[in-house]
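Students often ask why we bother encoding 3D structure as a string. The short answer is that it lets us treat folding as translation between two languages. Here is a chain of 217 residues written in the first language.
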Amino acid sequence: MKKLVIFDLDGTLLNTIADLAISTNHALAQFGYPVHDVPAYNYFVGNGINKLFERALPEEERTEENIIKIRSVFVPYYNAHNADYSSPYPGIPELLSTLQKKGIAIAVASNKYQEATEKLIRHYFPDICFIAVLGQRENIPVKPDPTILYDILTLSGIKKEDALYVGDSNVDMQTAHNAQMEVAGVAWGFRPVSELEIYHPHHIIYKAEEIVALTER
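And here it is in the second language, the structure alphabet:
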């Protein structure tokens, strides 16, 4: 039986794509760059916000200076608007409540910057006691580097053999493999199931409640 479930945030617990897209488009427009339709952002996100801005910028404008400019507008705007259109995926609040009642530890490992990660978790899941909520932190490599998972395991005191990682993208699958952890890919996220299958996750799940059964194996 699993003692810990670690969740990715964007595309796994919360559908945040509209707020991410609107906020990035707002920053792009401030500097006269072309904006993108919301579905395009499904493939821009996943590797932290600097990579998001790099992908959203025109190819010839993808400089460190321009990424910093976009970030300077994006962060304050997103901080104010990151819950405008975002929402938990169907069954997620009930799943987290069930896991908590079963005594299974719950954590978040996200490539979203730390401030926004904490704010969204507090806003949408105020009744859930997470043992760790980790986002992108200064001088800590982002996923697929496994450091964030190792940090959560250390904080929890739980062995990786007793933990399950749950995510929606190729980045999440690679992160779990790099940490040599059991991983479940969710079919409801930002990326298609075909992308998940390339990385041979231990499980692919289509409904949130399926995770409960995985913890009982």
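Translate back mentally: The longest helix spans residues 64-81. Keep this in mind for the problem set.
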